[in-house]
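Appendix B. Extra example for self-study. Work through it before the problem class; the solution is given directly after the inputs so you can check yourself.
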Amino acid sequence: MTIKLIYWPFLQGRGEFVRLILEDAGAEYEDVARKPESEGGGANVVTQYLYGASDACVGFAPPYLIDGEITLAQMPAICAYLGERFGLAPTSDGDRSRALQLQLTVADVVNEVHDTHHPVTSSLAYEEQKDESLGAARAFREQRLDKWLGFFDRVLADGGGEALVGGALSYPDFGLFQIVEGLCYAFPIAVERSLGDAPRVRDHVERVRSRPRVAAYLASERRLAFNEHGIFRRYPELDG
Amino acid sequence: MTIKLIYWPFLQGRGEFVRLILEDAGAEYEDVARKPESEGGGANVVTQYLYGASDACVGFAPPYLIDGEITLAQMPAICAYLGERFGLAPTSDGDRSRALQLQLTVADVVNEVHDTHHPVTSSLAYEEQKDESLGAARAFREQRLDKWLGFFDRVLADGGGEALVGGALSYPDFGLFQIVEGLCYAFPIAVERSLGDAPRVRDHVERVRSRPRVAAYLASERRLAFNEHGIFRRYPELDG
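Solution. Structure tokens for the complete assembly:
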């Protein structure tokens, strides 16, 4: 049965972590809202699932995944589910939990990056909290970026350099790829500086990028470009 | 073998979600840093595990859990691990993922509440970002609080009212208990208003509170009081 992903059709966002796993797994899936409205797509599909915008109560916010009888929300929970379903997760109890731990660390970076352009509230636009964003982005660049990349570099080093957990690529490896790609887009100046001290992270990104299905996906029209609607936004005033 | 929890000894924080599950499970555990320094406790135990503060690389930040060969970080990953180990988690694939989804929603509330008093950066004290906090807390109270509580009220309603997932108490139920307790501490005026529209959440908190082991724990010295070092802080200027 075809898996359905329900996510905003015009941005990568948290949905992209799910898309990358579906793509690398070669899963048969539909990115429902990206279909034309005449074929049942469009952003209003997401709204139908969104808590508070309709009568639905699947999960508080997208992405949503529908796999037969299972309907699920929360990016790390969906990635863990898909990782285990498609052999992109470790199998021992300890390593399974460790993979989830690292996916949650990826999600923490996503939240912090989001808050560099939305430090006051997600209910207001960036332009309405731009002053606060300058301070938040500076704190992120100066006090957090090196530390996050250093952490993942060290995890890769401890595991032999090829994968975050257990010696074989699993779902958090795609998460790390995506946050580094996003950071390079949003903070090109700061990240270029920080990656110099995280050579294993840099290599890891290239390793994931060259996976045949990932490479095919990135070259396809299915991969949306980064833009200023998503998590990783290029506002030059926030970089440096 | 005794399970070890490594968390700051002077606050509830994210460690409290782990403590509640260990307590309800009747697990044999040591809250290591809360022991006297002469017995190997103290905050410096946490520092020894903290990424960047020592040579350790278990996880980016506490809580940390050690269970025999397994060492783990990230509150939701630890809660899922303990829930499954001690029968406080659903067993079907769909419900297992759903429990994790709801624990991650609990964690999202924790992050948002943290950011009401640390909107700019976690690297500075509240007093250094108090102006920004006034706006962030107001946005949280006016635009998010009702919605979060309403979401959990609806999940309880859809599940029959007794538990969040699958009809039996599981680890996210303790998470919901803890965030409501914390919200009542931090925003007593706003939360009293919002709970009026979330009667199932209010009942649920009392149901968890009256579990014999939870009740014994809450009455013991092991339960730290809420205070202004944790996630949920009572700053009267942020309530209303």
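Self-check: The two ends of chain A are 47 Å apart (CA to CA). If your reasoning did not lead you there, revisit section 3.
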